Amino acid sequence: MKVRRLWMFFGIVLGASVAACAGISHMDRRPIPPDDPVIGLLSKGITQLNLNINALSKRMNDAQQASAGTDPVLNELQTLDLSGWRLHRQQWVLQRDHLALARDSLQKASSQPGQKAQLLDQWRQHQRQYVSALEELRQQRRDLENEHLEVESRLVERGLQ
């Protein structure tokens, strides 16, 4: 019974270690400032989004350089893919800017406590605009995904006829 528990403990520790290593392999490894961990987490999120935006932009450029050939359905599919990536990049930019405003507002509130009420009002207004813009992007992506499915279906059906 003790051996079984020892193996279970070993498995849990090993699994947690592997998950932790895999989870932080691509993240910014700068330590979170001890004075305000929230600002540190926001900064890490901004850095990660910047990396994602740059990588996606490179992927989009590479895809635009590649030709889908002369097949109009494949060209349509490639165009839809690029449109989806553009929307995804817009969403990441929106999220990055949202995190930057949050970080900057918290920093300003820390250095200028008398501005907290004004900063809170600005934050609440921004939050409403952010949620609305995010929902609009999500709807555009859903519409694009539906169109992508239709084009994919046409392509498969054509191949099965």
Structure, explained:
By secondary structure, the chain is mainly alpha-helical. It is built from four helices and no strands. Helix 2 packs antiparallel against helix 3 (72-111). It starts with a helix and ends with a helix. Mean pLDDT is 83; it is low at 1-28.
Give the helices and strands, then pairings.
Elements: H1 2-24, H2 37-65, H3 72-111, H4 116-160
Helix pairs in contact: 2-3, 3-4
Order of helices and strands: HHHH
Helix residue percentage: over 70%
Major beta sheet, specifics? none
Number of strands: 0
CA-CA gap between termini: 62 Å
Shape: elongated
Structural class assignment: mainly alpha
Count of DSSP-assigned helices: 4
- Mean pLDDT, as a whole number? 83
In short:
This protein is mostly helical and 161 residues long. The protein has helices spanning 2-24, 37-65, 72-111, 116-160.
